[in-house]
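ok here's the first one, seq then struct tokens
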Amino acid sequence: MTVLLVSVFLLLVISTYPALELANYDNKYLYVSTAYGYSMYPTIKNGDLLVVVLKTSPYYHPEVGDVLIYRYSDQIIVAHRLAGIRGSTYIFKGDNNRYYEEVPEEKIIGEVIEVIPHENILACWVVENLIK
């Protein structure tokens, strides 16, 4: 019985660990979004939960290689890897894309700080209810 309880406890801790890491952040600077598409595969898969620190926060410090999200159009938000910065223009590339995109700085929303696989139902539920 003790082994079963310890196993259940460890499973809960391991599956919710990504959500526990977010306790270091002030929720007013966090944004949660669900990934759709395959342009960042295998790093980000369709249905994964993205935790984003907003550009206006003190935690926002993007570097080349980080994944940022930006507004592509009024209804489409894209998460791609930062390949470079030229003045106020950010250059992005999806891990599964062959082309680069130039995006003006004002379209940047924030930096992805955590990717929670959609299979981790418990962690997704905790994060979605923790960050609103």
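and now the second one, same deal
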Amino acid sequence: MKKEYHFYVYITSNYQRTTFYIGFTNNIIRRVIEHKYGFGSEFTKKYELKYLVYFEKYQYVNDAIAREKEIKKWRKEKKIKLIKSVNPKMKDLSKGLFKDYGISDKQIKECVDDLKKNYRSSCHFEPRFYRGEKSIIRDKNI
């Protein structure tokens, strides 16, 4: 059976929701943990962009990369409008995401410990179907 891949375009923000980072990943859980615990880029660490406020899921890598590039070109106001279209209060979606993927606090801690020892570690979570609010995740091409 052929392995099914998922690719994500996501937006993280700081606590005040004044600065945003648009990213792309094939493992949304690991990437969110990296941002939350300071393993992201220097930009995300500097501005404390550790709150997941938006994400989209894609089946095809080229579609996800194109979408990331598209959103990165937008003005801040347009990005906020996109986020608020599915997350009006711009709340942090990570706890719900972890819960819906069945990721425990213990697993998160183990992943963080592993990342501290070896960035780009074996910390890997198999993506499963997201069972959360349909308005929060936008499945593209699936």
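notes on #2: The two ends are 18 Å apart (CA to CA). The chain has one domain: 7-123.
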